[in-house]
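Quick one, probably user error.
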């Protein structure tokens, strides 16, 4: 079992199916960056109405997947690598705190995400603070960029 498969991800995020949008973490550099993915299945409930006859993953859910991936980076860094945390976060404790999506900037959607795609997610820290964080996030399919954004969140 991978150390960060779906059962481990559920320990770090409060989201559950059908709103948990990260299936597996494929790479992580604590306090710096994370790579993960979501397998997009025709069985996803949003495909029923978006769009009948031409299923496309809603952009807002791609953005949410990028935000969940970014939150995972911090949650795992805090819990598994507390000794290497940046000094300005020395007194911050996330126990019992929930990640919230606060804002997004520079959002672009470049290609549709379809059933059968593997949505690759990446996030890199831009800024960490005791109350908020900002990350540069990307989503791609088969190496082709699907979306990008700067995401700000809080715990």
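Nope, works fine. Designed sequence:
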């Amino acid at each position: 079992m991978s150390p960060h498969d779906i059962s481990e991800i559920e320990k770090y995020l409060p989201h559950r199916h059908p709103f948990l949008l990260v299936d597996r973490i494929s790479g992580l550099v604590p306090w710096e960056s994370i790579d993960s993915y979501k397998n997009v299945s025709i069985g996803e409930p949003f495909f029923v109405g978006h769009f009948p006859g031409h299923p496309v993953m809603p952009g807002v859910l791609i953005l949410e997947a990028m935000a969940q991936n970014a939150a995972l980076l911090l949650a795992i860094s805090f819990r598994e690598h507390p000794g290497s945390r940046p000094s300005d976060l020395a007194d911050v404790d996330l126990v019992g705190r929930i990640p919230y999506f606060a804002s997004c900037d520079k959002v672009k959607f470049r290609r549709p995400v379809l059933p059968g795609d593997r949505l690759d997610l990446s996030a890199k820290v831009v800024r960490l603070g005791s109350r908020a964080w900002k990350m540069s996030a990307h989503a791609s399919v088969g190496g082709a960029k699907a979306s990008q954004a700067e995401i700000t969140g809080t715990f």
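The longest helix spans residues 59-80.
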